[in-house]
Amino acid sequence: MIRMTVLWILCWVQAAAAGTHSLRCFGVATSEGSELPEYVHVDMVDDVQLSYYDSTMEKPVLQQDWLNNTMGHEFWDRQTWYILSDHDIIKRSLRNAIQHFNHTGVHTYQGIGGCELDDDGTRRAYWYHAYDGKDFISLDVKTLTWVASVPQAVYYKSKQEADTALQQILFHYYRQECFQTLKGYIQYGMKTLQRKVRPEVMLIQRKARKSAGTDVICHVTGFYPREVEVNWIRDGEHVLEEGVWSGEVLPNGDTTYQLRKTLTVSPEDQKKHSYSCQVDHASLDEKMDVKWVPEAGLNMWLVAGGVLAALGLISMIIGALIWKKRASGERVGGGVKSCFSNATFLFPS
Fold this sequence. Notes:
By secondary structure, the protein is an alpha+beta fold. The protein is built from eight helices and 19 strands. It has helices at residues 65-70, 73-101, 154-162, 164-188, 190-193, 267-272, 298-311, 313-321; strands at 6-9, 20-30, 39-45, 48-54, 61-62, 108-118, 123-131, 134-140, 145-148, 200-207, 214-223, 229-234, 238-239, 244-246, 250-251, 257-265, 275-280, 288-291, 343-346.
């Protein structure tokens, strides 16, 4: 049952690369004057949500049944302590930033931290902060020094480094405990983390908006894991890039994903060539090819438009909230620029 829908400005992080597992925690504090909870926190392993907490709750709740049966109460008590500690740190940081800048109105302070573990044993850890959606300060885990992303954050760098008790907690967590916890999740959550769900594919056509041609939407949905390759193929062999528009890989409400790729075909090309949508995914023994059979007439466009609207409800809601501004920089774990400029909805169970 969905308790609430929370608008949470955070970094939309891509799934970890193949052969890599990740543990991430996201937290955002919001100043008074907003209808949102003053604090929201989510933990995720790979792209699976593990826990949820907001400031209207007494304590965090687990989102995966296998956690209750494997990790034990002592483990969960410690994770609860970390979540509530993050609440205090980020809420205090928001209050200090508002006072320092002498700001009024609604503001946010965000944190994203975690670790990544490659199959070859390579390890990475990170802890970033942002104020009002912009990079503010980050922790260099290797040296345990803070890096100010903007001149205004130099004050906070000095303040954080002077807090020796906090430094020791961070040192222990990001050097050791985060990786130990991640290994436990990988061991006990293998069935969930490594499950494979086949995609469903539907082709929908409509009249192109800016030309005399036809838009054909390849709607791929219900797949897991997140990584998928979708291409439009002409005459069974040519992979098309021109005239193709790709949407985002978006989450469905059931922990699976969806993606759309739209091909615009001119009336002339429609008569001369054949087209198919090709899908490659870990759940498939071989690539899936779905051939487009053109259907002419406005009636088909209207029917397809109705189907498209129904299928795309979740996509439109989430897509409208994913800010298209993309940051230049390396992936999380190697340093991120403007990581916090995106937004999404969270649906705690």
